[in-house]
Description:
Layout: H1 2-6, E1 13-18, H2 27-42, E2 48-55, H3 65-68, E3 71-73, H4 84-91, H5 93-106, H6 115-123, E4 128-131, H7 137-140, E5 144-148, H8 153-156, H9 168-182, E6 185-188, H10 191-201, E7 210-212, H11 226-236, E8 244-247, H12 256-268, E9 276-279, H13 287-300, E10 307-310, H14 315-323, E11 327-330, H15 339-346, E12 351-354, H16 359-363, E13 368-370, H17 375-387, H18 389-404, H19 408-429
Parallel strand pairs: 1-2, 1-4, 2-3, 4-5, 5-6, 6-7, 8-9, 8-11, 9-10, 11-12, 12-13
Helix pairs in contact: 2-19, 4-5, 11-14, 12-13, 12-17, 15-18
Amino acid sequence: MKPLAKHGFAPPLHLGIVPASTRSHGGVAQYSATVMEVLTSGGLPGSIGSVTILREGGRTPENGAASQWPAVSLFPSRHPRRFLPAVRAMLGARAVSWVGQQLRRGCAGPPRERSEIGRWYRKQGVDFVFWIAPDPLAFECGMRFVMPIHDLQHRLNPQFKEVSEDGQWQVRERLYRNAARRATMLIADSIDGREDILSYYGHLVPPERIAILPFVPPPHISVMDPDDQMRQVRKKFSLPERYFFYPAQFWPHKNHEGIVRALGLLRARGREDISVVFSGTQDGPVYAPTHRAVMRLSADLGVGRQVTTLPYVPDALMAGLYLGSNGLVMPTFFGPTNIPILEAWRMGRPVITSDIRGVRSQAGDAALLVNPSSPEDLAVAMQTLWDDRFLALRLVEAGRRRDASWTAGDFAARLREILCVASAWARSDGGQRGQGK
């Protein structure tokens, strides 16, 4: 093979792909589903000859990639957190929380060298790896790699405990700093996201190594047979006749409390007819207390009947929840872009979202923008959209135009281009960029 390369022939590389296949990954799992769908249906660039799926914990991606490409489990010893269920059984939840904090703090130090894992990947024939979810193993194992960085909120919004407390700030900083230093290529989902990477880590990564790949709605969002989808949702869940919809894990930064406070203001003005449906994981050390706080606030403000909370909803039912709603309300504090906005546009529903950097660029004229720190702003927007049918239609039409401006085909073509460029750099780097720095 080497003599052929000297004469101008470069044999195609073998790509390893690590999907995010658990629901705890939230939006990253949806992004992963989109990536796997377009790669399996749209094909690979000519510079990549074969693919192996490196499965997280032995899980199989929920699409055709499982049968189209061979799959192996990740190196078996890589997950110390697999011991946490045993600790929980023996010592209880507080012990699990303490152990988790220590593990996170241990992960916040200098990069470990996990060359044995890199050797194991190479034994599978893998030349370089596409980590769909950010992971420190990407730079620890010594392989050339591509990785997305969707946000740097530990830098931009460190006041939220989910990105700063219990060692999380240090974990994220170590992850993104070393990824910037060593990645063959990084992927941002917007111009704003790319600017953030360059602002904080531009001294570590050349601008040409950061590609932009905007999000598209995940593959499970479909308008096929909308009446049947809405019937299924009504049969499965007890829902208000009219409601705003907000699919989001119960992180504090998602700002469920802001929506509840807006409902309290509306109730004081006699508008008890306006309701909201939340869907998202309600258990876990962060989600559970946030969910309890939201429900407690709902009761205190007298709007408990106007708030419906659903657990994590299967993908097959998400379209029906959108279709049955008056629109999406998403006053998040985090950007730069968010997938539910794209889902709402695809489903033909109007959007209320945050007037913050990144989200402002994503939404353009296809949403009502509000100050996420102002329940009053949110209350006015919710009442206006609830009552004004013509405004809703205008926003729906604007959303459809933006949805049509960047399609799954565009996403697939850009992703193939990125992987083609990354594979060329993987060859020329001769190893992991920045190794040992």
